[in-house]
Amino acid sequence: MGTLYLTDQNAYLRKTSKRLVVEKDGETLCEIPAFKVDRVVIFGHVQISTQAMNFLLQNGIETAFLTTHGQIHGRLVPAFNKNIFLRIRQYQAYGDADFRLKFARELVRSKLTNARRLLQRLSYSRDIEIEHALSEISRYAELATHADALDSLRGYEGKGTAAYFQGFGMLVQEFTFSGRNRRPPRDPVNSLLSFGYTLLSGEVFAAVSAHGLDPYLGFFHEIHYGRASLCFDLCEEFRHLVVDGFVLDLINHRRIQTGDFEEDKESGGLLLLAEPRKKFLAAFNQKMSGFRKKGGDEEISYRLSIHHQVDTLRQALEGKGEYQGYQYT
After folding, report:
1. What's the helix, strand, coil split of the chain in %, to 5?
2. Res 296: pLDDT
3. Cα torsion at 114, 119, 125, 127 (round to 10°)?
4. Is 84-317 in CATH node 1.20.120.920?
5. SS3 label, residue 102
6. How far is CA 39 from CA 59, 64, 78, in A?
7. Which of 57, 76, 141, 237 could form a disulfide with 326, with the two C-beta atoms 3.0–4.6 Å apart?
């Protein structure tokens, strides 16, 4: 199953007996067997019938509503998971300083270790001096495993991530990338990264909700009103692996080019134009749903891996073992 992205403005989503149908101006754009869809993401002015809406809710399928440029408006989600006892354990764990620190240390160790492995793979056979970045990432990953407080751990995570992006910048071709910037993203590479991270957070939000956890109560990121902190926590292990690699592929193979962006008049940031956005969404969905080796002969997609990590956290909350971070192979 996969995500249905609707980007054609003034399109209309309806349901027949066993299919979801997208129409515009009396023409059918696509028909998809309903069982193949596990999430719907709507960009801008797209209509949806009440029959389709009821079907999505009854089958536990989340619908996310975004602006045409990818900023989240809100989500239509099925009734909350009934496992209140799991959420009670989650709330109790938030007050357990030892649990929070152990979880966060493993999260940061996993993120930085995976980021280093990704850089090694992407830089293989490339004539670039990336050893310093790799060394710095390793250093901060090691420091993270021994951090005695969340504040110091966040410092190690930030410095390790900065070292990672120094190495990442060396791999960028055709475009200019001098470091991470956001809110708004001021160059094409950061625009693509921010858009990809938004899509990834939606995937994580859906997985966290499906497993019965509260997406707004995290253990590493501080909680704020309206901030899905647990989603931000679990995104950390996947953001570089899922988003950065395929963004690099898109720009270095010129599938996305410098002329594919426009300036947002309100924020001053750069945003993808409509047609390149469709290309980006297709690449993201392929990245999420494509199967890759996990170990031995086993294959698993990143989408399923995210669900696996959420379930690993659930087991840790229920006292069935400690949280084990995602391992990139």
Report:
1. 50, 15, 35
2. 52
3. -160
4. yes
5. helix
6. 10, 8, 11
7. 237
DSSP code of 232? H
Both tokens assigned to 198: 């938004």
- Predicted confidence (pLDDT) per residue in 109-156, tens digit: 999 999 999 999 888 877 788 899 999 999 999 999 999 999 999 999
State in words which class domain 2-76 has: alpha beta
pLDDT digits (tens, 9 = 90+) for 36-85: 887 788 888 899 999 988 888 888 787 888 777 666 777 787 766 667 89
Distance, CA of 13 to CA of 150 (rounded, Å) = 45
Residue ranges of the chain that CATH labels 1.20.120.920: 84-317
Rounded Cα gap, residues 166 and 35, in angstroms = 43
Record the tokens describing residue 73, joined without a space: 């408006």
Distance CA 139, CA 143 (A): 6
Q: How far apart are CA 159 and CA 137, in angstroms?
A: 8
DSSP 282: H
Residue 89 backbone class (left: φ over 0; alpha: ψ -120 to 50; beta: rest): alpha
Q: Where in the chain is the domain with CATH 3.100.10.20?
A: 2-76
At 32, is the secondary structure helix, strand, or coil? strand
Contact 185, 270 (CB under 8 A): yes
**Is this structure's pTM higher than 0.85?**
no
Q: Rounded distance, CA 242 to CA 280, Å?
A: 13
Residue 198 and residue 70 in contact, taking contact as beta carbons nearer than 8 Å: yes
289, 118, 144, 109 alpha-carbon torsion, rounded to 10°: 30
